[in-house]
Amino acid sequence: DSLHAKVFAAIHGQKLPLNTEAAIIDWIGRQGVDKTKFSETYKSFGVASKLKRAVQLQNDYKVEGVPSLGIAGRYYTDGSIAGSMERALKVAESLIAQSRTRA
């Protein structure tokens, strides 16, 4: 959790190519994380399952960029579709409320 913002900044701000296992492990080591423990977790069944699900959702929603919002496995919005990210958040809040009342 403490590295989430750093990962986002590295990829989207600094444009670091963290798209291979070696690059990720090298970068994570420079952040003070035990590279061996990280590598074991990175290669674990649980992480592989979550990654597969994330790719499936990305493909299902046809995500073209970030930030994007998928809601209740049925709806998708982003700043381009809604007109702005502020509007996208309002749309998402409305869809979440709507989904909760149907559950």
Head-to-tail CA distance between termini: 30 Å
Strand content: 5-15%
Q: Biggest sheet, in brief? A: 2 strands, antiparallel
- The number of helical segments is 6
The percent of residues in helical segments reads: 55-70%
- Global outline: globular
Radius of gyration: 17 Å
- Going across the biggest sheet, name each strand in turn: 1-2
Derived structural class: mainly alpha
Q: pLDDT under 50 segments (min length 5)? A: none
Q: Which whole number gives the mean pLDDT?
A: 93
Q: Could you state the order of secondary-structure elements as H and E?
A: HHHHEEHH
Number of strands: 2
Task: Please describe what this structure looks like.
The protein is mainly alpha-helical and 103 residues long. It is 65% helix and 8% strand. A two-stranded antiparallel ribbon has the order 1-2. The longest helix has 18 residues, at 85-102. The two termini are 30 Å apart.
List keywords for this structure.
103 residues; mainly alpha; two-stranded antiparallel sheet
